[in-house]
Amino acid sequence: MDFNATKLFIAVVNAGSFSAASERMSMPISTLSRKINELEQALNVQLLNRSKQGVKPTYQGQQFFEQARLGVELLEDAQKSVTSAHKLQGKLRLSVPPNFSLWWDLLLEFQQRYPDIKVFCHSSERVVDLFEDGVDVALRMGNLNIDDVIAKPLMTAEALFVASPALLARYGTPKTLTEMAQLPIAAWESLTHGSFEWGSGVEKVKYEPLFSTNNTQALIHYALRGMSVSQVMDFSVRPWLESGELIQLLPGIAKQSLPLLLVYAGHKRPSTLVRAYLDFCSEWVGRLK
């Protein structure tokens, strides 16, 4: 049986189509199709159902996929450990929420430690599918209700309300959520989220922002220019809080804590690269505390 053809078959199943696998692997579709045809002939079984919508494994193909995938991953790890002279090399496909500035520093240091690891980092509001999108590790905020993944807790981030001294000089410093709702507010809003409410204990306050966006840097910009109160993650505004250019409002009352998680496939053994990334993230975040 052709080991390389088996790897190509696994890549096509993961991608869901020959065209998507061709793009990811930089290999002509004709070559992919020919190799998998040869694999089917060698095994004397049809592995894929082909259609205009893509490909899906047959019953026998799914069985072969599940068993072969684990073996291929083990062989690849063994090959890397021998041929790389103990240097980690390869490519990691990551997903990070948009405007997550903290993570760019982490990735810079990660690649300085592991210069032979190439990184592709997808940043979008869309929650990626680890399997269909071929992502090794995703960074997620908030609680998850997803099967077939492992979520490794990394840290807890806090959403803070901040404003500039100039804005507070004009309007006064609010003592409650109700008072803060009377100030000009810049808020996070996505295409599918259009209601605005703060809550702390039994107190719930609805508000109407003068500006809303899905861009964290814009919220910070509005706050720094004295245009509004903004709610942003603590790590995004730490430099301006330390310099005094921004002031936290209602500390201990109106803050929201969100878990930060590293999510990866639960159905397979993490590769050497994935394990190195997970360990590095834990170490790096530990230095922040």
From TrEMBL:
InterPro entries: LysR-type_TF_proteobact-type, LysR_HTH_N, LysR_subst-bd, WH-like_DNA-bd_sf, WH_DNA-bd_sf. The keyword Transmembrane does not apply. Pfam families: HTH_1, LysR_substrate. Transmembrane segments: none annotated. The keyword Plastid does not apply. Residues 1-58 form the HTH lysR-type domain. Keywords: DNA-binding, Transcription, Transcription regulation. Belongs to the LysR transcriptional regulatory family. This is LysR family transcriptional regulator.
